[in-house]
Amino acid sequence: MCSQDKRSPRRQASPPSERPEADQALRCAAEDRLRELATRPSESIEADWPEAARQLLYELRVHQTELEMQNEELRRVQLELDATRARYFDIYDLAPVGYCTLSEQGLILEANLTAATLFGITRGELARQRLSRFILKADQDIFYLHRMQLLADGQRQACEMRMVALDGAPFWAHLETVPALASDGRRVLRTVISDITERRQTEAELRIAAVAFQSQQAMLVTDANRIILRVNRAFTQMTGYSAEEAIGQTPFMLESSRHDADFYRAMWKTIDRKGCWQGEIWDRRKDGETYPKWLTISAVKCSDGSVTNYVGMQYDITERKVAEEKIEELALFDSLTHLPNRTLLRDHLKQAMTTGQRSKTFGALLFVDLDHFKALNDTKGHHQGDLLLKAVAQRLTASIRESDTVARLGGDEFVVIMGNLHRKMEQAVTQAELIGEKILIALNQPYRLDDADHQGTASIGATLFRGHETSSDDLLRQADLAMYKAKAAGRNSMHFFAPAMQAVVLEHAALEASLRMAIQEDRLVLHYQAQVAADGRVAGSEVLLRWQHPERGMMAPTDFLPLAEATHLIVPLGYWVLETACKQLAAWAARPEMAPLTLAVNVSAQQFREADFVEQILAILTRTGADPRRLSLELTESLLVEHAQESIEKMLALKARGLGFSLDDFGTGYSSLSCLQRLPLDQLKIDQSFVRNILSNPSDAEIARIVVALARSRALTVIAEGVETQAQRDFLEASGCYLYQGNFFSQPLPIEGFEEFVRRH
Ligand code: C2E
Ligand code: CA
Ligand code: CA
């Protein structure tokens, strides 16, 4: 129907051909007549015209006018038609889709401009091309099928396929074709071709987004009000909440309460400002477990900048955290023993130095080296060696305070750091030495390695530090040197780096040796300090240990008891005291003035914890024949509270035989009253530190009053120790305490002196 020249809107129309025949005849006759008349002068003509002719002329003129009007109308309609046709061709050519008329064989008969543009070719060149030329090879079948189907059912058909422009640029096309009849009666196909590349891309992106949304990463999408719209499977797996449970809620449902309101405020502020936030956050799963995750929140904005959605992407970093910890462990801890390695040791040493600097206290560094470790490794193999190192690590850790550090430098070398020791060097050496001794004893115990027994010892080099006076490298060198001295001295020993420190140690060693001798040679004595009632009567006495030292003279227990405890000598020493006191009770039993007196004996924690403590006491009572009712044991709070149940059992067993128990130094410990309530005590002893300032310090006075009230409520007696003045005694009496001990009445005296004191009262 269409051809190239149809485009021209200015083509002339042919005159109308469908006039009636009568008109045509009339016009011919009139024209002939007019021609003849034209040869004559007009006035003569008209004058002799018959009426009929004049009438005819009139009609002819009227008809001519009509004709002219019709012609005018015809021209106007023609112009309008031309404009409409031009408009149609404009619309047709510039339509957003391509139009082609194809022959049944697929030959392009005619196309609009858009189609030509789609294929990158002029319209003239496009005509007579096969449409298949512009179809991607792979999609040729689609078009073939499309055409076949059209020809078969004569119905409108649509298909999508990839086409290529002349320059090779591919694009996605939607084809919609209807069969039609051309003006010449041939069957043609009218095809509409739309470029759907963009739509296809969007669809692909949506598909990708949909797949991506179901990725490994947990995701949630909220609206602008943070109401959850969608979550993916990974989200469900991670949080335990199904999509149904999550949708409609806010992400608040995941909050772990590990972060405060300020944290979330800052997070949302960043999202508002930057459009996104990411960081580590702790959330709570449905089952209540909290876990760390890495969260990225992005705001989705529309063109005007307002937020339409928030997308949260998150992944569980529990495993990563564990891995990080593992890496840290590898970097800072020894993999065999899990003790800090050299790097972490330096760190801890620096900390201990800084703390010491502030508190002006000494710290100690011990270099522990196993004796003959190489021999074990060489003869029994590395596996046994490893087992030993692990056991040593455990024993070392058990020997130190929680605040101290044990590190492994490598091989069989360990280092112990102790902070916050005494401010005085001698005392600090003693403390370090005690721990060192403890370590040596611990490492001396037999080891069970797989199925084999092993006996090992260690050598310890020690040095003290105060603040940052000595560098950490120098300290390690000092301790190392000292350790070699310990090895040289015969192993299984401890040596201090500095001569002054070592001198203290040597002195201790000498002291220990002579204390052992003292026990054997009976150079220990008991002194008796009277316990006096409010009416002045002597009720009994506390026995206090003294050591008659050949060179140093009479030594107080505070000078040698710590050493005795460290070397475990306290146990035989304690039994010696008990035995001596019981002998004394037995001897007094025969003397009426002394028989009613009681004796209070101090019992150390180490001794009380001995498994056979009860049996030993009973054996002593039997051996000496002392009356158990005259014997009272003084225990301290810490001793009782640490192993309360065991203590109670031992106390009850002895109480059944008539022994009494007094709680020494009461008020200085931190035990809870409820714990004390359970202990089967007979007496509370107000510590001398409260008595000392009872008149000047109201809170000390208050404590004394509370102890009295407490004792009274539990039907216990109460005694005050360290009473030095009449005023203190009177104040105590006024507070309800009627039993006293202290220098105001009598110092601790040798037995003769004490008996003399009793006789005088
Ligand atoms: P403790 O059990 O608190 O003994 C009381 C201490 O206070 C004694 O010191 C005593 O001499 C002293 N004292 C008594 N009255 C006064 C006074 O009026 N003013 C002042 N300032 N001090 C007074 P000592 O004899 O030096 O004993 C010290 C600690 O040694 C005892 O403290 C006790 O814990 C322990 N101890 C003494 N003998 C033995 C014993 O045979 N075995 C055990 N395990 N520990 C003992
Ligand atoms: Ca005591
Ligand atoms: Ca005391």
Automatic annotation (TrEMBL):
Residue ranges of domain PAS in the record: 204-250
Domain PAC: 157-208, 277-329
EC number assigned by the record: 3.1.4.52
Record's keyword terms, sorted: Coiled coil, Hydrolase
Annotated ranges, domain EAL: 508-761
Coiled-coil stretches: 60-87
Annotated Pfam families: EAL, GGDEF, PAS, PAS_9
NCBIfam families with a match to the protein in the record: GGDEF (TIGR00254), sensory_box (TIGR00229)
Protein name: Cyclic di-GMP phosphodiesterase Gmr
Species: Candidatus Accumulibacter appositus
Gene: gmr_3
